[in-house]
Amino acid sequence: MNQQLNTTGQWIQVAAGLKNPSMRRLLGAVLSGEGTGEAPGKSERKDLERWASIGLLRQEPSGWVLNDELLEQTLASAAAAKADRTGIRRYFDGHRLHTLPAKPADRHEVLVYLRNAVIDAKEELREEQINERLRVFHPDVALLRRYMVDHSLLLRAADGSGYRKGSEN
């Protein structure tokens, strides 16, 4: 995960470098094989050093070249991140639910996970307490609560005063 964060930060810096017209031209010259000329000026040297500090270019005896290792690390990091986002985890960013699944079976799985995270088997909670716990996962607590009741995952007291855990499905 740290490597993923590191390469993400590097690619943000790459994007910032590409936004700079002089850095973009210089990178194009290096990638096209035109090089930077015999003696790069002060501005070009500064841009080359910035590309090197980001990790996209490196200096070799033959001149400046693309750092293929950064590209390999980025691809490996992206593959690892994709592998970590299987099952219901693909609907979460960390602990935050970013998307409620459209497929009923997936939605049910996510709701069971959330229900198990917010209420224990023997608890009975007021609506405010359920809302407070659900808000940790998603801002639309009413929607989540309603779905859980509709799926019989939460049982609402007849007078609406409290909620308890429903079926274990």
The CATH architecture category of the largest domain equals Orthogonal Bundle
Instruction: Write down the overall geometry.
Output: rod-shaped
Give the number of domains: 2
- Approximately how much beta-strand content do the residues carry? 5-15%
Name the helix and strand elements from N-terminus to C-terminus, one letter apiece. Answer: HHHEEHEEHEHHEE
Organism: Glutamicibacter arilaitensis (strain DSM 16368 / CIP 108037 / IAM 15318 / JCM 13566 / NCIMB 14258 / Re117)
Protein name: DUF2087 domain-containing protein
Task: Write a brief caption for the model.
The protein has 169 residues and is mostly helical. The chain has helices at residues 2-19, 21-32, 42-54, 68-84, 104-118, 127-135, 141-150; strands at residues 57-60, 63-66, 92-93, 96-97, 124-125, 154-156, 163-165. This is DUF2087 domain-containing protein.
Q: How would you portray this structure in words?
A:
The chain is mainly α and 169 residues long. It folds into two domains: 2-79, Orthogonal Bundle (Arc Repressor Mutant, subunit A); 87-165, Arc Repressor Mutant, subunit A (Orthogonal Bundle), CATH 1.10.10. Helix content is 56%, strand content 12%. It has seven helices and seven strands, in the order αααββαββαβααββ. The strands form three sheets. A three-stranded antiparallel β-sheet has the order 5-7-6. A two-stranded antiparallel ribbon has the order 1-2. Strands 3-4 form a two-stranded antiparallel sheet. Strand 1 (57-60) and strand 2 form a beta hairpin. The chain starts with a helix and ends with a strand.
